[in-house]
Amino acid sequence: MQEVFAVGLFVVVLAFIAFELAHRTVLALFGAAVLVAVGVVSQEEAATEFIDWNTIGLLAGMMVIVAILERTGVFEYLAIKSAQWGGAKPGRILILLALVTAFLSAFLDNVTTVILMVPVTFLIADALDTSPMPFLLTQVMASNIGGAATLIGDPPNILIGSAAGLTFADFVVNLTPIVLISLPVVLGILYLMFRKDLRGSDNAEEVIANMDAAGSIRDGVLLRRSLIILGLVILAFFLHGALHLEAATIALFGGAALMLYSGVNVEEILRDVEWPTLLFFVGLFILVGGLEVTGFVGSIAEALTGVGAGTSATTAVVVILGSGLASGIVDNIPFTATMIPVIQDLAEAEGLSEAEVRPLWWSLALGADFGGNLTLIGASANVVVAGMSERAGQKISFVKFMLYGIPVTLASLALATVYVVLRYF
After folding, report:
1. In b/e form, how buried is each residue of 403-417, taking b as 16+ CB within 10 angstroms?
2. How is residue 373 annotated by DSSP?
3. 306 FRET partner, CA 20 to 30 A, in 113, 129, 148, 239?
4. Confidence of residue 3 (pLDDT cuts 50, 70, 90)
5. Directed axis angle between helix 398-424 and helix 2-18, to 10°?
6. Contacts of 202 (CB under 8 A, 6+ apart)
7. Radius of gyration of the chain (CA)
């Protein structure tokens, strides 16, 4: 009975979000509160087991750093330079920004990257006198593709790497090739879908050429201090294993250190943090926790691997496609966390060696990462971009995101499936 209730409530909340009948943060928190109130999830379970505080802390810390960076004028500088490099051609700039986003996502993590890139995107769209929507959607989808390339690029990879003992180099060797194959295809699809919207004003080239990039830097001292802290944070992300620190600890430490070092008004900075986005994640994690505790997500995960039991190639294909679809619906972080013990149990039951089970780990990573492009709640980066965009007066609807996400996800998952089968079987 509880399983039916949890699933029904999740579907209702998802439908209300999809049709924008109320704000997604309110809906997620209300749904989470209902689950706790009726006893499906206890308050202690919600706070200690289901909410991924590492994700929340990572987002909060990086939002603080970005809020301070915004005050330096560095985003205006990057916007002007990017537009000038792109020759004020919207289509060319769209591809350029997407490539930069994908590259940075592999090394910063995709959530941090989109937090840094969204302000730049709005400034460029304003200078071009065109809609920012094609740029925002292309960048967030590129971030989910690019983030698949490394251990730290996407939260599901961090979970998989930790559980399976996979190194940074393992991810680069095994997943970077398919990322390099998929990215041009995805960008080509999005360019074709957006080509009619990529129209700048007649005088955009002249306006952008006359812009003074260097003059946009408002506070050189603050910029220098911010870049020092940001550089140390990025370095710590690379060394997080040796430091024995979670990403959230590093980001929050960096945010707090920068507020102290820069001497900014703390209350003003904290007002710029995307609290609705953070609270949406809190509610979403609890809602998915309700699906987990009632056994629904576990049943889906077991069904995915059970279909191809005994045939490794078939199992890998089912894991890629099934994880891609499921991750787009319930968020790729909690789904990945649920799938990890299932794959471990499968490997033990069938007596698979560490080398034999690795293709299943790569299948799970690719399915979860690429599947995150399916819906607005499929990946953390999607939700962050939606929150920042809405704050800037450009709302990204659930349905609109999915219209572009479906072809991108299907194409990338198809390529990933072929890649895994040809390379490992």
Report:
1. ebbeebbbbbbbbbb
2. T
3. 148
4. confident
5. 120
6. none
7. 21
Angle between helices 90-108 and 110-128 (to 10 degrees): 160
Output the six-digit token pair for 99: 């490539």
Q: Give kind and range of the element (H or E) at residue 196.
A: none
Place of tokens 């059970």: 306
Per-domain boundaries in the chain: 2-424
Tokens 């949890």 — which residue? 6
Exposure string for 145-171, b = 16+ CB within 10 A, e = fewer: bbbbbbbbbbbbbbbbbebbebeeebb
The answer to whether 144 touches 370, Cβ cutoff 8 Å, is: yes
Q: Are 343 and 354 in contact (CB under 8 A)?
A: no
pLDDT single digits (tens) 241-258: 788 888 889 989 999 999
Nearest to 109 by CA among 61, 70, 75: 61
DSSP state of 195: G
178 within 8 A of 101, measured Cβ to Cβ: no
DSSP secondary structure of 242-295:
HHT--HHHHHHHHHHHHHHHH---HHHHHHTS-HHHHHHHHHHHHHHHHHHHTT
Half-sphere exposure of 379 (CA within 13 A, CB side): 39
What does the DSSP assignment read for 202-252? TTHHHHHHT--SGGG---HHHHHHHHHHHHHHHHHHHTHHHHT--HHHHHH
For tokens 């009948």, the residue is 21
Whole-angstrom CA distances from 384 to 53, 145, 163 are 16, 16, 26
**363 vs 305: CA distance, rounded Å:** 11
Location of structure tokens 């190639």: 313
pLDDT for the residue numbered 202: 67
| Residue 201 pLDDT > 80 | no
Report residue 144 as tokens: 């989910």
256-261 LR contacts (CB < 8 Å, sep 24+):
256/61, 256/64, 257/229, 258/64, 258/65, 258/68, 258/225, 258/226, 258/229, 258/230, 259/64, 259/68, 261/225, 261/228, 261/229
Spatial separation of the C-alpha atoms in residues 92 and 112, rounded to whole Å: 24
Q: What is the pLDDT of residue 23?
A: 86
pLDDT tens per residue, range 260-309: 999 899 999 999 888 988 898 899 889 888 888 888 877 776 776 666 65
| Residue 304 three-state SS | helix
